[in-house]
Design brief:
Layout: H1 2-17, E1 38-55, E2 68-71, E3 74-85, E4 90-94, E5 97-107, E6 113-130, E7 137-150, E8 167-180, E9 185-195, E10 210-224
Antiparallel strand pairs: 1-3, 1-10, 2-5, 3-4, 3-5, 4-6, 5-6, 6-7, 7-8, 8-9, 9-10
Protein backbone atom coordinates (compact mmCIF):
# COMPACT_ATOMS: atom_id res chain seq x y z
CA UNK A 1 0.00 0.00 0.00
CA UNK A 2 2.84 2.40 0.83
CA UNK A 3 4.45 1.72 -2.56
CA UNK A 4 1.15 2.43 -4.29
CA UNK A 5 0.78 5.74 -2.45
CA UNK A 6 4.36 6.75 -3.29
CA UNK A 7 3.93 5.92 -6.98
CA UNK A 8 0.59 7.76 -7.12
CA UNK A 9 2.13 10.79 -5.44
CA UNK A 10 5.08 10.77 -7.81
CA UNK A 11 2.83 10.61 -10.88
CA UNK A 12 0.62 13.38 -9.52
CA UNK A 13 3.62 15.67 -8.93
CA UNK A 14 5.08 14.82 -12.32
CA UNK A 15 1.95 15.69 -14.27
CA UNK A 16 1.32 18.77 -12.15
CA UNK A 17 4.85 19.92 -12.90
CA UNK A 18 4.31 19.43 -16.61
CA UNK A 19 0.79 20.81 -16.75
CA UNK A 20 2.32 23.65 -18.77
CA UNK A 21 2.05 21.37 -21.79
CA UNK A 22 -1.68 22.03 -21.87
CA UNK A 23 -1.87 25.48 -20.32
CA UNK A 24 -1.95 28.72 -22.24
CA UNK A 25 -0.42 30.88 -19.49
CA UNK A 26 2.66 28.87 -18.56
CA UNK A 27 6.27 28.93 -19.70
CA UNK A 28 7.09 27.71 -23.22
CA UNK A 29 9.52 24.79 -23.14
CA UNK A 30 12.38 24.60 -25.66
CA UNK A 31 11.12 27.54 -27.77
CA UNK A 32 13.93 27.14 -30.33
CA UNK A 33 13.91 23.34 -30.54
CA UNK A 34 12.43 23.20 -34.05
CA UNK A 35 14.83 25.81 -35.42
CA UNK A 36 17.66 23.26 -35.65
CA UNK A 37 18.60 22.19 -39.18
CA UNK A 38 19.41 18.65 -38.02
CA UNK A 39 18.05 16.80 -34.99
CA UNK A 40 18.29 13.23 -33.75
CA UNK A 41 16.49 10.89 -31.42
CA UNK A 42 15.26 7.38 -30.83
CA UNK A 43 11.95 5.59 -30.51
CA UNK A 44 10.40 2.66 -28.70
CA UNK A 45 7.04 1.19 -29.47
CA UNK A 46 4.68 -1.64 -30.25
CA UNK A 47 3.40 -3.17 -33.46
CA UNK A 48 0.71 -5.50 -34.71
CA UNK A 49 1.14 -7.19 -38.10
CA UNK A 50 -1.53 -8.82 -40.25
CA UNK A 51 -1.54 -10.40 -43.72
CA UNK A 52 -3.80 -9.57 -46.65
CA UNK A 53 -4.56 -12.23 -49.28
CA UNK A 54 -5.70 -12.06 -52.90
CA UNK A 55 -6.97 -15.44 -54.09
CA UNK A 56 -6.84 -16.92 -57.57
CA UNK A 57 -10.25 -18.53 -57.06
CA UNK A 58 -11.85 -17.42 -53.80
CA UNK A 59 -14.64 -19.60 -52.43
CA UNK A 60 -15.10 -19.03 -48.68
CA UNK A 61 -15.01 -22.03 -46.36
CA UNK A 62 -14.13 -24.54 -49.04
CA UNK A 63 -10.87 -26.38 -49.79
CA UNK A 64 -10.72 -24.82 -53.24
CA UNK A 65 -11.13 -21.36 -51.74
CA UNK A 66 -8.26 -21.63 -49.27
CA UNK A 67 -10.01 -19.46 -46.67
CA UNK A 68 -7.19 -18.29 -44.38
CA UNK A 69 -7.26 -16.57 -41.00
CA UNK A 70 -4.42 -14.67 -39.34
CA UNK A 71 -4.14 -14.50 -35.56
CA UNK A 72 -2.11 -11.43 -34.65
CA UNK A 73 0.00 -10.61 -31.60
CA UNK A 74 1.69 -7.52 -30.22
CA UNK A 75 5.35 -7.03 -31.15
CA UNK A 76 8.06 -4.56 -30.21
CA UNK A 77 9.88 -1.77 -32.13
CA UNK A 78 13.11 0.09 -31.41
CA UNK A 79 15.06 2.47 -33.63
CA UNK A 80 16.83 5.76 -34.29
CA UNK A 81 15.71 9.00 -35.91
CA UNK A 82 17.50 11.48 -38.15
CA UNK A 83 15.50 14.62 -38.91
CA UNK A 84 16.25 17.28 -41.55
CA UNK A 85 14.25 20.50 -41.37
CA UNK A 86 13.10 21.59 -44.86
CA UNK A 87 10.99 24.55 -43.77
CA UNK A 88 8.94 25.67 -40.80
CA UNK A 89 6.29 22.97 -41.26
CA UNK A 90 8.01 20.22 -43.23
CA UNK A 91 10.73 17.75 -42.23
CA UNK A 92 12.44 14.83 -43.93
CA UNK A 93 13.01 11.88 -41.60
CA UNK A 94 14.96 8.65 -41.74
CA UNK A 95 13.89 6.17 -39.04
CA UNK A 96 15.96 2.96 -39.22
CA UNK A 97 14.91 0.38 -36.68
CA UNK A 98 14.18 -3.22 -35.82
CA UNK A 99 10.76 -4.74 -35.17
CA UNK A 100 9.86 -8.15 -33.78
CA UNK A 101 6.57 -9.91 -34.35
CA UNK A 102 4.93 -13.30 -34.87
CA UNK A 103 1.68 -14.28 -36.56
CA UNK A 104 -0.34 -17.50 -36.66
CA UNK A 105 -1.81 -18.51 -40.01
CA UNK A 106 -4.72 -20.93 -39.91
CA UNK A 107 -6.59 -22.60 -42.77
CA UNK A 108 -10.26 -22.84 -41.77
CA UNK A 109 -10.93 -26.04 -43.70
CA UNK A 110 -7.96 -28.05 -42.38
CA UNK A 111 -7.28 -26.18 -39.11
CA UNK A 112 -3.59 -26.42 -39.97
CA UNK A 113 -1.54 -23.76 -38.18
CA UNK A 114 1.72 -22.20 -39.26
CA UNK A 115 3.62 -19.75 -37.06
CA UNK A 116 5.31 -16.89 -38.89
CA UNK A 117 8.10 -15.32 -36.87
CA UNK A 118 9.47 -12.05 -38.21
CA UNK A 119 12.45 -9.90 -37.30
CA UNK A 120 12.42 -6.89 -39.60
CA UNK A 121 15.15 -4.36 -40.21
CA UNK A 122 12.80 -1.49 -41.02
CA UNK A 123 14.04 1.50 -43.10
CA UNK A 124 11.41 4.25 -43.57
CA UNK A 125 12.00 7.54 -45.40
CA UNK A 126 9.23 9.91 -44.40
CA UNK A 127 7.90 13.43 -44.80
CA UNK A 128 6.53 14.97 -41.62
CA UNK A 129 4.09 17.86 -41.95
CA UNK A 130 3.56 19.74 -38.68
CA UNK A 131 0.94 22.31 -37.78
CA UNK A 132 2.08 25.56 -36.17
CA UNK A 133 3.10 25.11 -32.58
CA UNK A 134 0.53 25.92 -29.90
CA UNK A 135 2.20 26.45 -26.51
CA UNK A 136 3.92 23.12 -25.87
CA UNK A 137 1.90 21.09 -28.37
CA UNK A 138 2.32 20.50 -32.10
CA UNK A 139 0.23 17.92 -34.02
CA UNK A 140 1.59 16.38 -37.19
CA UNK A 141 0.92 13.93 -40.00
CA UNK A 142 3.60 11.73 -41.54
CA UNK A 143 3.85 9.65 -44.70
CA UNK A 144 6.37 8.02 -46.97
CA UNK A 145 7.85 4.75 -48.15
CA UNK A 146 9.91 2.05 -46.48
CA UNK A 147 11.66 -1.22 -47.09
CA UNK A 148 11.90 -4.09 -44.63
CA UNK A 149 14.45 -6.89 -44.53
CA UNK A 150 13.12 -9.98 -42.77
CA UNK A 151 16.05 -11.59 -40.95
CA UNK A 152 13.78 -14.55 -40.08
CA UNK A 153 12.74 -15.18 -43.67
CA UNK A 154 12.30 -18.80 -44.76
CA UNK A 155 12.38 -17.93 -48.46
CA UNK A 156 14.95 -20.63 -49.19
CA UNK A 157 13.34 -23.37 -47.10
CA UNK A 158 11.31 -25.61 -49.46
CA UNK A 159 9.78 -27.53 -46.53
CA UNK A 160 8.14 -24.47 -44.94
CA UNK A 161 4.35 -24.21 -45.15
CA UNK A 162 4.42 -20.45 -45.67
CA UNK A 163 7.52 -19.15 -47.42
CA UNK A 164 7.92 -15.39 -47.12
CA UNK A 165 10.31 -13.26 -49.15
CA UNK A 166 13.18 -11.53 -47.42
CA UNK A 167 12.61 -8.03 -48.84
CA UNK A 168 9.34 -6.14 -48.68
CA UNK A 169 8.35 -2.62 -49.75
CA UNK A 170 5.72 -0.50 -48.04
CA UNK A 171 4.02 2.84 -47.87
CA UNK A 172 3.26 4.43 -44.50
CA UNK A 173 0.85 7.06 -43.17
CA UNK A 174 0.33 8.23 -39.63
CA UNK A 175 -0.57 10.94 -37.14
CA UNK A 176 1.00 12.11 -33.91
CA UNK A 177 1.69 15.01 -31.60
CA UNK A 178 4.89 16.66 -30.38
CA UNK A 179 4.96 17.43 -26.66
CA UNK A 180 7.68 19.86 -25.57
CA UNK A 181 9.19 19.27 -22.16
CA UNK A 182 11.93 21.22 -20.43
CA UNK A 183 14.79 18.94 -21.53
CA UNK A 184 13.41 17.03 -24.53
CA UNK A 185 10.60 16.57 -27.03
CA UNK A 186 8.30 13.54 -26.65
CA UNK A 187 6.20 12.43 -29.62
CA UNK A 188 3.64 9.61 -29.48
CA UNK A 189 2.39 8.58 -32.93
CA UNK A 190 0.17 5.99 -34.57
CA UNK A 191 1.11 4.74 -38.04
CA UNK A 192 -0.19 2.31 -40.62
CA UNK A 193 2.28 0.28 -42.69
CA UNK A 194 1.00 -1.31 -45.93
CA UNK A 195 2.96 -3.78 -48.05
CA UNK A 196 3.15 -3.16 -51.80
CA UNK A 197 4.83 -6.31 -53.16
CA UNK A 198 3.79 -9.95 -53.10
CA UNK A 199 5.65 -11.56 -50.18
CA UNK A 200 4.63 -15.15 -50.86
CA UNK A 201 7.12 -17.54 -52.44
CA UNK A 202 5.08 -19.81 -54.70
CA UNK A 203 5.31 -23.54 -54.22
CA UNK A 204 3.30 -26.76 -53.72
CA UNK A 205 1.74 -25.80 -50.36
CA UNK A 206 -1.73 -25.15 -48.95
CA UNK A 207 -1.31 -21.54 -50.16
CA UNK A 208 -1.14 -22.47 -53.85
CA UNK A 209 -4.50 -20.75 -54.42
CA UNK A 210 -3.11 -17.43 -53.10
CA UNK A 211 -2.20 -14.95 -55.85
CA UNK A 212 -0.77 -12.20 -53.63
CA UNK A 213 0.09 -11.93 -49.94
CA UNK A 214 1.06 -8.59 -48.41
CA UNK A 215 1.74 -7.41 -44.87
CA UNK A 216 -0.24 -4.77 -43.07
CA UNK A 217 0.86 -3.33 -39.77
CA UNK A 218 0.00 -0.77 -37.11
CA UNK A 219 2.84 0.91 -35.20
CA UNK A 220 2.44 2.78 -31.93
CA UNK A 221 5.75 4.61 -31.40
CA UNK A 222 7.05 6.84 -28.60
CA UNK A 223 9.81 9.14 -29.84
CA UNK A 224 12.35 11.05 -27.75
CA UNK A 225 14.42 13.89 -29.22
Amino acid sequence: MKKFILITGFLFCYFQGNAQLFSGDRMINNPNFDQKRWSYGYYLGFNMYDLDFDYKNYQPNSPSGNDLIIETSIGFNVGLIGNLKLNNNLDLRLEPGVSFNNRLLRATYTQEIDQINSTYVHLPLLLKFSANRFNNLRPFVVGGVSTSINLSSNENNPEAITRIKTNTYNYEVGVGIDLYFYYFKFSPSLRGVFGMNNELVEGPTDLENVKNMTSRGVFLNFTFQ
